[in-house]
Design goal:
- This protein is α+β, with helices and mostly antiparallel strands.
- Helices cover 25% and strands 25% of the residues.
- The strands form 4 sheets. Strands 9, 10, 11, 19, 20, 21 and 22 form a 7-stranded mixed beta sheet that branches. Strands 12-13-14-15-17-16-18 form a 7-stranded mixed beta sheet, covered by helices on one side.
- Strand 19 and strand 20 form a beta hairpin.
- Helix 2 packs parallel to helix 5 and helix 4 runs parallel beside helix 7.
- About 3% of the residues have low confidence.
Length: 492
């Protein structure tokens, strides 16, 4: 049926098509004292001959990552001089790239790029207002890395990509195995994730940044569907549920890890592909990104492979490196067992169980949480180097500290909601109240949740991003808040 202006109404949100051309999108691959390794993605209509990528040292031919839905995803592997950065050109456009292997560098951190419902209906100027601020800042004072800590893709509309998927979502979670998987469902799921990445990557502010600043990405639940892994096994392992994960994983590999679907990331540690955690290293700097979704279940955050990946990433980190650990859900947070206890007693509150179970602080994950904190604290207390946790997920900004044995402090910086709207005021107030009680899961290492510099509440309810600066080996962090602006820097 035609709309009021005579045009056909837009397709349902689960069936929207993306553009035919996207990119270039840069991905960081690590570096040494000589070269910074990069990979660039470029999406073109199928059959169109891709251009060469040009650097000062010559031309780079593309390889093919995927051919799907009338497009081809091309990838270019190249390097630029370490310590100085440089340029690359594609389709006649030269893009400057800052090096991450310099004594002074700037890193941006973002998370939660969307919202659960109606994300495609928002005017892009409103949706990406904070993205645009970040893109403008990069033009004036370039960033060397763009760390994206989870929910790069709000994919919850996948539940509207096919009538049988909608029926699956309408059933009780424990009854969803009754919906059989068909080739048509598989096709619809794969198409949804593919098209949604194209839509997301083509937005102007992101496209400006992504062509100039190499990204390091790790997924969280909304890159699959809300709360993935914190649901009953009958839902996760149902034919349709398993295929949702398979389709999301396939496109995550292509568009966030920049590898072919059948491959595993070169900076990963699990060649089986069961866990997709990575460690990307530069001189004096390691960015470790555990995969907290691939093996997640009601009773666990990671399985044996995931823990092995994370512990190996730490064991292989050179002594003296600063570790930036991207934990998609905060590693330091308030006690949640009281809230979980309340949901067991208060009628109608069970809808929040998945959100609570997602957190490290859930009573279901207490043992794993202590294991994680012991790993992090042990790195600093052993004298091997310093560590800062970067996190998002909660749609608020805050920071945390864990006192270490010997008098040191481990910092956590939370920046969440680059485009997700800030939640209602009651949510940060509730978290702030819980944070006042403190938490000490490891003996002698008290955790405190603290307000941003100059902010009046513990949790800042504004859209935001984080800026990390290294100058003369000293690290500082500041938050850019949508309405308050830039905070004073805090030493980390």
């Amino acid at each position: 049926m035609a709309g009021m202006n005579g045009e056909a109404p837009p397709a349902p949100t689960g069936r929207r098509a993306g553009p035919d051309r996207v990119g270039p999108v840069l991905f960081a691959q690590g570096g040494d004292a000589q070269r910074d390794r990069l990979r660039a993605l470029l999406v073109l209509p199928a059959g169109e001959r891709p251009p060469m990528l040009v650097t000062d040292e010559g031309e780079i031919a593309p390889l093919t990552l995927a051919e799907e839905f009338g497009r081809t995803v091309h990838a270019y592997d190249f390097s630029l001089p370490s310590g100085t950065g440089g340029f690359y050109g594609i389709d006649g456009v030269r893009h400057p790239v800052a090096s991450a292997a310099t004594p002074d560098l700037r890193i941006a951190y973002v998370s939660c790029n969307g919202q659960e419902e109606g994300d495609l209906e928002r005017p892009v100027e409103e949706r990406d207002a904070v993205w645009q601020r970040l893109a403008d800042e990069n033009l004036a004072n370039p960033f060397a890395l763009l760390l994206q800590g989870g929910d790069q893709l709000y994919a919850d509309d996948v539940l509207h990509c096919h009538p049988e998927v909608e029926r699956w979502a309408s059933l009780k979670k424990t009854d969803r195995g009754a919906v059989p998987l068909t080739p048509e469902i598989t096709e619809a799921l794969r198409r949804f994730y593919f098209e949604r990445y194209l839509i997301t990557y083509a937005r102007p502010a992101f496209a400006s940044l992504a062509a100039r600043v190499p990204s390091i990405m790790m997924w969280d639940d909304h890159d699959i569907i809300d709360g993935w892994g914190s649901h009953p096994a009958e839902m996760l392992d149902s034919p349709v549920g398993a295929e949702i994960f398979a389709a999301a994983r396939e496109m995550f590999l292509i568009f966030q890890l920049a590898v072919r679907p059948g491959e595993t990331p070169a900076n990963g540690f699990d060649r089986t592909g069961s866990n997709l955690g990575t460690a990307i290293r530069y001189p004096g700097l390691s960015i470790i990104s555990p995969d907290l979704r691939s093996e997640r279940r009601l009773e666990r955050v990671m399985g044996p492979i995931g823990w092995s990946v994370l512990e190996t990433a730490f064991a292989e980190t050179p002594k003296g490196d600063r570790i930036l650990l991207m934990s998609s859900v905060p590693a330091l947070g308030p006690r949640l067992s009281w809230v979980e206890f309340a949901t067991d007693l208060i009628p109608g509150s069970h809808e929040y169980e998945d959100d609570l179970r997602d957190q490290w602080q859930s009573r279901a994950h207490r043992g794993e949480w202590k294991r994680l904190l012991a790993l992090l604290a042990g790195w600093e207390e052993s004298g091997r180097g310093e560590l800062t946790v970067l996190s998002g997920e909660i749609h608020l900004a805050t920071r945390g500290e864990m006192r270490l044995k010997g008098g040191g402090v481990m910092h956590q910086l939370v920046a969440s909601g680059i485009s997700h709207p800030a939640p209602a005021p009651g949510y940060p107030r509730m978290l702030g109240l819980l944070a006042k009680f403190g938490e000490s899961p490891l003996a002698g290492r008290k955790i405190r949740i603290l307000p941003l510099p100059g902010y009046r509440t513990t949790y800042a309810g504004e859209r935001n991003f984080l800026v990390l600066d290294r100058h003369d080996k000293a690290w500082k962090a500041a938050w850019e808040l949508e309405f308050t602006g830039r905070t004073e820097p805090v030493s980390v």
